Sequence to fold (206 residues):
Amino acid sequence: MEQGNYYQTIETGGQAEFKDRGSRFIAIAYPLQHTDDFKRILAAVKKEHPKANHHCFAYRLGTDGNAFRVSDAGEPSGTAGRPILGQIDSRQVTNVLIIVVRYFGGTLLGVPGLINAYKSAAALALQVTPLVRKPVLKIYHLQFDYTQLNEVMTAVKQFDCTIVKQELQLFCVMDIGIPRHRLTETIMRLEDIKNLVLKEVAAIAG
Fold:
């Protein structure tokens, strides 16, 4: 992962194909925000490629890089999921899922051949997918009176915060993501707003 105030990810999908001795390896990269989305995407790919022999994948989530999963999906252990994840990590991207669909071509590739094929397919998919740099956010929960909404929104815009969720009634609640590199000044500004309750909700979000 890119340490510090920013991380790299993708916002659009990309697809590439690698061929070796008749086998086709179609790699598809997807932006991924939650593990719940992963199951839906994998099911859609399996539906789109029902005759493929394998649907191998790897994903990494979060700016700390701790959440990841790999699957060889029936290929020999360590020949598919890990090489795919290796490419995600070598490009230092997160919140990314890569699924590699294999159509067997009749010739066995052996362990080195499989590792190379899955690695190459994943690398090609990331090459054709634009990488974007985003700020690491810390999530804070705000509670304030409706009359203070303008003042709060001014601060949110001024410091490039992201509104994660909000309920605007007479008494307002809002979760915002504050860019880590602007955290101190944002907190100082928000604490200047009278009667506003501010607390850190969670760790860093991507």
